[in-house]
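Q: A reviewer asked whether we had any structural model of the full assembly, not just the individual parts. We don't, so I'm hoping you can provide one. Inputs are below.
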Amino acid sequence: MNCYLCERVLPFLPSWRGLFFNDFQQVICEKCKSGFERISGVVCPMCGSASEGLCKDCLYWETTEYAGLLRSGTSLYYYNEAMKDYLHQYKFLKDIVLSEVFVSELRNELSRTKAIIVPVPMHPHKMKERTFSQVDCILDAAGLSYSHYLTKSEQVQGKKTKRERMSTPDLFFWNGRAVPEKILLVDDLYTTGTTIRHAAKELKKAGAVEISFFTLIRG
Amino acid sequence: MTELEQFLTGRIWLRDFMPFAQKEVDAAISAGKIGIKKGITENKECARCLEKSPQKIISFYCANCQGICYYCRHCLKMGRISSCTELIYWADPSPNPQSPHSFTWNGVLTNAQQRASDEVLESLSLNQSHLVYAVCGAGKTELLFPPLAKALEKGQRVCIAAPRTDVVLELSPRIKAVFPDTVVHTLYGGSPEETGFATIVVATTHQLYRFEDTFDVIIVDEADAFPYSCDPSLERAVMKAKRSEAPIVYVSATPSDRLLKEISKQSRIFSRFHGHPLPVPRFQSLWNYKKTFARNKIPILLTRWIEDRLAKKEPFLVFFPTIELIEQVVPLFKMLNERIEAVHASDPGRKEKVMKLRKGELPGVLTSTILERGITIPNIQVAVVGADESIFNASALIQIAGRAGRAPDFPAGDVVFFHNGIVRQMDKAKRQIISYNRGEFV
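A: Here is a predicted structure for the entire assembly that you could use as a starting point for your response.
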């Protein structure tokens, strides 16, 4: 098999672990893998970005109506060039197999959570256009179960300035299903935190008690 | 011919990615001028690149068509094709537009070039494929001008396909200069938009996925990589882009055994246009060179070779087997001369660095195999480090050696294969070059 990203042949490395455990197969080569940079060291306790104490963005959020919504948050990777290329190929070239790239990392982070995983949803039009939901697909690939309690409104976040994004009207609506107490929101990319906070606000209104979040990438 | 027809004739294009107003396209579809194909056929084959291996045709649950859909990973970068996307083509082609072409070339062909040129003309007049087997620097492009002029005169549509963008970019201006009244399109990944109906298309082989049943002649340049063992879909692309009966002219310095066997019409040129023999590579052992590099030292024999070039102010190319090794050793070479640069495939400054080397602004360049073909720098001296590595097969080594001695003023040039043990491919390359110089064929 070839690396999904650079098409180089993946070497098959036999190991005892491979023989006894049904591990997920590697789909990218070591070189491509080494291009992704994990966030490490001291992080903001609220959003997981590299920062000592609360980061600037979270400090700002805590002065708004969104204060106190999030218990904690984790992001795995920096949004570096390799990650931009990955996300481009996955989301914009719509290369769905790339949902398998971070399977082991996702399982390590999420398989033991006691909270219910809630992916940040896409607007149905957007979904039809893209033909798949990038967040649902990475969770499916990792074999993690999840539930949807939200519906996306018309708003598009990507093309706005930071200020505009931080003050947009409600992005999500509750879909009416009974909401569990503990929730882990999952998204692909955390940039300003607006999306996650809007989702959290709506979920809290619908009855959620403790909301954390996880994103693959921190922009 | 409307602009839409000019664009779409002979092409097969994603409906959603047309550079025309949707209304115009829709009108032509309802008028029956444009035909529609499913992106992935019932047999799970990509209708654009003809890929059908299950590793490349991927099934998924599609939110657009609300069911199981397939998409093609193979030609993904040209815009994703899936079962529910539509490809369109001009269903009702007019005859090729007949416009006068002028042929402004007053160069002179050598006897060997002239003979090959005549033989290609003859094959094309009989609608037969032809192989031009000519050494690096034989003047292959020039000998194709008269057959190209003849094809245009007959009102034919011609494609010149080359495996790499660099080669396309070098060929295209030469073709345009010789046929100034002809619409020539230059197509490669990320190429600027072209307009009008192209009678000549100069393109990377990949771009031929987007054509269908249109060319009356295809010239496959640098065909030694053909039938492209690494990517069989490129051969299918060539076959798909031409009309079924159209002949192919293969041009190569190192043709594969299969081409030599299958193409009965052949022309061979084993001397360079300036009449001087090809520089014969010499072998130089560089035992455990990787360990020496790992100790942050350049092996002494290689240092001497570089210093010799620097002292004589001769430009040089040093080929390495991997990009990783180049990156590791660049700082060491910069200690010999800080203007020595490295070039590899994904280097955005590649063109400028080669240009600087040509102008003498850089003393030398370290490179991967990316520069093995298509570049001509007078008095260039060539070294291969790790010539025994498997990436350097005989044809790659012949191409690399072929960089040296191309200019009539400097017909010689040093070609050194630094190795960690002589391998068969090195021997084969050297034997072949010697036999070319003797005018015989192994």
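A: Points you may want to mention in the reply: The mean pLDDT of chain A is 90. Residues 36-218 of chain A form a domain with the Rossmann fold fold (CATH 3.40.50).
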